[in-house]
Amino acid sequence: MAKQGNLNFEIPPEMRALAEKSLEQARQAFETFISAANQAVTAADKRLQGAHAGAKEVGELAARFAERNIASSFEFAQQLVRAKDTQEVLSLHSDYVNRQMTTLSDQAKELSREASKMTGAAIQH
């Protein structure tokens, strides 16, 4: 008969601290991204009064990114709750942080492209 593993496990304080620090870094990166996006929208809106619709689109794009990122964070939290052991927690965390950094980078590039399009269109008018 197969021996069932102990589903109750203690996460060492060092591992918990590492996880909390990594989550805080991801949160700070996200907040920096949102802040930069908001600043870009505000600056664009001030410089391009005639391109208000474009600035609104960029702002809406940033909001959609924020929604996706928050949903991803909740999904990650659900995965952590279901983790069977410390190794799985570490693996989930590593995967999540890597995905988020890639996602944030891609989103920043897309936001920059959209802002550039908006600026180019305003200059032509």
Give structural notes.
- There is one protein chain.
- The chain has 125 residues and is mainly alpha-helical.
- The protein has a single domain, classed as Single alpha-helices involved in coiled-coils or other helix-helix interfaces (Up-down Bundle), CATH 1.20.5.
- Helices cover 84% and strands 0% of the residues.
- It is built from three helices and no strands.
- The chain has helices at residues 13-47, 52-82, 86-124.
- Helix 1 (13-47) runs antiparallel to helix 2, helix 1 (13-47) runs parallel beside helix 3 and helix 2 runs antiparallel to helix 3.
- The protein starts with 12 loop residues before the first helix and ends with a helix.
- The mean pLDDT is 80.
Question: How is the secondary structure organized here?
Answer:
Layout: H1 13-47, H2 52-82, H3 86-124
Helix pairs in contact: 1-2, 1-3, 2-3
Rg computed from alpha carbons, rounded to a whole number of angstroms: 20 Å
| CATH class categorisation | Mainly Alpha
| Secondary-structure-derived class | mainly alpha
Q: Main sheet?
A: none
| Low-confidence regions | none
Q: What is CATH's topology name?
A: Single alpha-helices involved in coiled-coils or other helix-helix interfaces
CATH architecture: Up-down Bundle
